[in-house]
Amino acid sequence: MYTAADLRKGLRVEVDGVPYIITEFNFTKPGKGQSIYNCRLKNMLTGSTFPKSYRSNDTIDKPNLEEKRVRYSYAEGDRFIFLDEGYEQVVVGADVLRNNRFFLDEDMPVDVLFHNGEPVDVSLPNFVEKEVVHTEPGARGNTATNVLKPAQIAGGYEIHVPLFVNQGDIVRIDTRTGDYCERVNKR
Amino acid sequence: MAAASSTRGASVSTLRSRAALLRAIRAHFDQAGFVEVETPLRLDCPPNEPHIDAEPSGDSFLRTSPELHLKRLLAEGMDRVYELGPCFRRGERGTFHHPEYAMLEWYRAPGGYLDVLADAENLLCAVAARLCGGCAFVRAGVRVDLTPPWPRWTVSETFRRLAGWDPVAAFDPDRFDLDLVGKIEPALPADRPTVLIDYPVEAAAMARCAGGPRPVAERWELYLCGMELANAFSELTDAAEQAARFERWAGERRGRGQAVYPADAAFLDALPRMPRAGGAALGVDRLLMCLADLPDIRSVRAFA
């Protein structure tokens, strides 16, 4: 159980059985009134956010969260199998992985967050390198660097890349945004 | 400012503006016939205000405001006094709060809350003229016009319009604080000061209550740039009523597990000799945040 005095940006709390992370926090106090703790809570399952105010005497539930380092093994349809240090299987669904499922590589270290024993979120390495399996050739002579074109990476995920990137190139992708970052080497 | 990059707090240029603001405040009050006083920073008996906690200092406490001592000076016969100096409130830290902050507090007798409202209007125009060259300033791209008279919004009407209920008719302290922060403050105009005035008697603090069929506390709060800048009362001089409020607040504090401070007997003894007066307290750091267009209280205080 947390009290309002524990609230701060980044703290994980539980409201009605759902884990939230505090993304914005401010202390305020109307004249002669009680302390008000204004928070913005981000739902750790859906990513949606909403504002919530707490008073000094409010208590806030602490979520039962556990983080575990695992390594990616293989996929079975929408089920993604990871192995922990003791080679126990950890199964994470595509609904939890979302776009991250396109960025997995065998043996990749991944941090899985569990809420009441259920996986609810994963953290991949910030950058992964993937091959472009399909993209149209860039228009000849168009050297503008801010023009992007669609490109498919191995696994079927589509990103937007600069015109100079060709099929077969290896590109670096930021897993936090899912966006193209840079070209690593030319075909 | 490169020199300040390794130090938290105000830049050198902001500290120059701060010094100019303090000079302008003193010049204004000195010219208006107020006497600057310095009262004790350490108190044995900070007022038992329900939601204000004092920082212990040895066997005493750092003052949360100079209010009780300034009122004793009125009881001694001074009629216009002001104090400009640090106050301390335990655990208050946020964009607009710092546990150590600069307070300007002034009293005039004879008088009431409308007299110190006129003082506040004149003061802000005078300091803006010195610092910003006119009775206006620009904050966050908005020109804020300080020309008096400032719009006065009664608490009753403001809450009915913006929060859908009337705290003067039936008071609910939790709802009052939450709606004030969540519904009223965000709706206040950005280009003008707003005076929220005539509070529920339950939120009188140390204000005198006006009689009549629907009594209200003669109290106002000044809002500027979304911040509560000043609080003022027609001061309560009824010692029995004041003692009863102290006792009620002490009970509330005890119930919430907050520290309970001893009642200030010297203040209560002096109160019957205190003339009818108006008093106001203004947050100097926040005023500088407005005039210098800075977003955080730490950006106007050295080493904050």
Account of the 3D structure:
Chain A is mainly beta. In chain A, 2% of the residues lie in helices and 54% in strands. Chain A contains one helix and 16 strands. Chain A has one helix at residues 94-97, and strands spanning 2-3, 12-15, 18-28, 36-43, 49-55, 59-60, 65-76, 79-83, 89-93, 109-115, 118-123, 127-135, 148-153, 158-162, 170-174, 179-185. A five-stranded antiparallel sheet of chain A has the order 9-8-7-10-11. In chain A, strands 14-13-12-15-16 form a five-stranded antiparallel sheet, with no helix packed on it. Chain A has a four-stranded antiparallel sheet with strand order 2-3-4-5, with no helix packed on it. The N and C termini of chain A lie far apart (55 Å). Chain B is of the alpha+beta class and 304 residues long. Helices cover 33% and strands 22% of the residues of chain B. Chain B has helices at residues 12-31, 67-75, 113-132, 155-162, 173-184, 239-256, 265-270, 284-291; strands spanning 35-36, 42-43, 56-57, 60-62, 80-88, 100-108, 136-139, 142-145, 152-154, 194-199, 217-224, 227-234, 278-283. Chain B has an eight-stranded mixed sheet, sandwiched between helices. Mean pLDDT of chain B is 95; it is low at 1-6.
List the helices and strands and how they pair.
The complex is a heterodimer of chains A (187) and B (304).
Chain A: E1 2-3, E2 12-15, E3 18-28, E4 36-43, E5 49-55, E6 59-60, E7 65-76, E8 79-83, E9 89-93, H1 94-97, E10 109-115, E11 118-123, E12 127-135, E13 148-153, E14 158-162, E15 170-174, E16 179-185
Antiparallel strand pairs in A: 1-6, 2-3, 3-4, 4-5, 7-8, 7-10, 8-9, 10-11, 12-13, 12-15, 13-14, 15-16
Chain B: H1 12-31, E1 35-36, E2 42-43, E3 56-57, E4 60-62, H2 67-75, E5 80-88, E6 100-108, H3 113-132, E7 136-139, E8 142-145, E9 152-154, H4 155-162, H5 173-184, E10 194-199, E11 217-224, E12 227-234, H6 239-256, H7 265-270, E13 278-283, H8 284-291
Parallel strand pairs in B: 1-5, 9-10
Antiparallel strand pairs in B: 2-4, 3-4, 5-6, 6-13, 7-8, 10-11, 11-12, 12-13
Helix pairs in contact in B: 1-3
